[in-house]
């Protein structure tokens, strides 16, 4: 048997990707000559070095002391790894390491390409340790897999097996403060690594914000760093039951750590902000901060239930700020598309509130991190358990100055376009007439031209700084080649008048849509952009479908709903991409409920909400989305709403709905059901695009009905006042008395 344990070599393990940062940290603790391997650092040092890593390392997982190496003989053809581990364990006198009265456990790690039943191999290694004790002292230690006094770590390799004493005991990422958990939390040492990479201690920030704080890990790890709090100050370690433990040395290191922390607490701390949309997360954060020992400085930490859309005005003028967060990616949110919308929304908020300040944001995919508007961005890939994560670091770009396109536009000089000058002049005139209104009202999306001239049967819509051009299909008697030449002339004129290039102009042909073709994809290019309308940021798709996701003719109705929604429960039937619901939510609605038969549009709806910092699929169900036939949904529920908006299609025979819907035929039944869900003092807005529509006499007789079509049609649609019709419907006053 070997008589002397090898004590001069130490292994420090870490999560994949942390090796370089961990080496920097260890060098800061005075440790030199470090060998770096995947997931493990090796150094030659003394016991004090190992103790200091246990006490001070914020990034390491375990500190291991190799004690015994068992070389493998390859005299046999088939390896029996379990028996090799037993032979290696029994060949060493473990009574030199710990007493038989101590409990112990074994953690086995097997190198790749070694085939073995790890559970049975671990059991055989334990047998070897126990039999070694019986041979040496005639007594055997007990096994405790939950709270052992001694933990042994065995690395089963191809040429040798190494038996280590785990000085850390439990993993070092467990600081002891995480009493309350939320979904998919980040490990403490990974959070600390992100703060280390961001150079938090060097920034000396005045403000630290985590807007999606979960269980508060980033806030607490920031407190640890800025108050010089050793992560190992109050936790138990695996060396306490080791025969070679130097209690006096350890207590001196612990006393030094306590003194450093006490001194740092006297210094000025930054203001911390910890927000989350989930009240349970807010409670968990507060309880974990107290458990970490920071109850005395809770007045420095503003912990509140807030969505991204509900950020306060930070008093950060002239102050150094740092934002760090772990958004609800992957399993916590679900849809990858919604994730991207979340990062776009977060980026816009950072640009607004924290321009030129530092930030670090976790993503589950690089594509999500790529949308963050950072200067000189850096990326770090880590493993949070089995999940890869990407951390984007950088300085937040200031928000670009956003102005309506028409504010900067001026009539342009261009060469005469033979055969299209009448169209060019009309488009120029329309843009001049709409400019003052659009600039004054902050209108970014509007119709510039709508088949004003019979020879140019197109609609030209402006979405931000891009154009959506719809060619109405020409009558059959028109020569297709002639129609094509005229349309190409129109496109040339549009580019000349607006000054926009080909890449900013998107073209579709609008024919009458019937039956199942009305929702058919026009393209698979997915040219999606964010546009502004009122307070809302909205995703529009200018290629895939005939409709873009935003009906421009209903702009005034959406803005009206936004103005009336505060404190109300709002229902939106045939919600499409739920832009009316979004306006209501941003207007302060108590809740919104959106119902549509299409999951595609409801997922799009959720993206719109997430883009604006609003929470979806949340336990409090403030904003709900239902994939259902509106008739059936109205029939099955009983909830009451103060504000209802219904904008049904003229005709529908969706394959998900048995039968057909005809707005003229079916609106009586639809409205009666909806009015049953309207509070006595509530308002229902009803609109549709069927030009020949006539309101049923029964509706006019039973309810207070006011046609408001003119009020809901903006100046850009005044030439086509029949684009839609709209009504305001309420219960008769005598029912309210």
Automatic annotation (TrEMBL):
Molecular function per GO: 23S rRNA (guanine(2445)-N(2))-methyltransferase activity; RNA binding; rRNA (guanine-N7-)-methyltransferase activity
Keywords, comma-separated and alphabetical: Cytoplasm, Methyltransferase, RNA-binding, rRNA processing, S-adenosyl-L-methionine, Transferase
Compartments (UniProt record): Cytoplasm
Enzyme class name: transferase
Enzyme Commission numbers on file: 2.1.1.173, 2.1.1.264
Recorded superkingdom: Bacteria
Pfam families (UniProt xref): Methyltrans_SAM (PF10672), RlmL_1st (PF22020), THUMP (PF02926), UPF0020 (PF01170)
THUMP domain sequence ranges: 49-167
Catalytic activity: guanosine(2445) in 23S rRNA + S-adenosyl-L-methionine = N(2)-methylguanosine(2445) in 23S rRNA + S-adenosyl-L-homocysteine + H(+); guanosine(2069) in 23S rRNA + S-adenosyl-L-methionine = N(2)-methylguanosine(2069) in 23S rRNA + S-adenosyl-L-homocysteine + H(+)
GO cellular component, one term: cytoplasm
InterPro entries: 23SrRNA_methyltr_KL, DNA_methylase_N6_adenine_CS, RlmKL-like_Mtase, RlmKL-like_Mtase_CS, RlmL_1st, SAM-dep_methyl-trfase, SAM-dependent_MTases_sf, THUMP_dom
Biological role stated in the UniProt entry: Specifically methylates the guanine in position 2445 (m2G2445) and the guanine in position 2069 (m7G2069) of 23S rRNA.
PANTHER family with a match to the protein in the record: RIBOSOMAL RNA LARGE SUBUNIT METHYLTRANSFERASE K/L, RIBOSOMAL RNA LARGE SUBUNIT METHYLTRANSFERASE K_L
Record family assignment: Belongs to the methyltransferase superfamily. RlmKL family.
Protein name as catalogued: Ribosomal RNA large subunit methyltransferase K/L
Organism: Acinetobacter faecalis
Encoding gene, per UniProt annotation: rlmKL
